[in-house]
Amino acid sequence: KEIKDSDRSSLFRGIEVLPGSYKIQIKQGLNQVEQRIEVVGDPRFEVALVDRITKYQALKRYLGVEEKLFAIENWADSVNQRIAEVLEQLGAMSILPEREVLLLETQVLENRLANIIGLSKVYEYREPVSKMSSSYDAPTEGQRLDLLRMEEALQALIEDLSIFSYRELESHSQRLRAVGVEPLFFPNFVPMR
Fold it and tell me: Is the pLDDT of residue 135 over 90?
C-alpha cells in the first residue's frame, strides 16, 4: 500500500512482512490462484524478532490512521463538492429573500470545514511517522511518540468534524430545505470513529 503526501510524493510503501509461512491469493475476475510462500528474514540485517514485531504493529497502527484520514478527506471533498453546487443553486435564485444570508452561511460553512481540516495537527506527524518504514529496526521512541500524537490528533479531528456535521451542517441543511434546496450533505455521516 502506497500513501501519497499532498504534493503527491510517496510517504510510505507498506508494512514489512514478518518472517513466516503465508498463503497468497490472487483474484482477477473469476480466476483465482492460491499458493503458500515462506518468508525469511533478510540475512543482511540482524534484527531481533521482537523489534520486527514492534515495528509491524506500529506500522499497522499508522496504516489505520492513514485509512481513516483517507475516508475523512473523501468525506470532506464530497461535502465541498456539494457546497459548490448549493452555492451555484443559490446564485441562480434571484427572487429568494433569504438568498444573501444563505449564500453567506454556505460560504462560512465551506471556510469552517477547510479550517477544521487545515488546522488539524494530524498532518504535522505524518512525515516523521511514515519514515518508520524505511528502517529495519523497531521504531524510535520519537516515532512511537509521534504515532501516539498522530492518533490523538486524528481523534480530535474526528470529534471536531462530528460536531461540525451534527451542529453546523445539519442546521444549515434544514434552512436550505426550507427554501427548496436539497443540500445532500449527508450531515449525519460521521467519518470513521
Answer: no
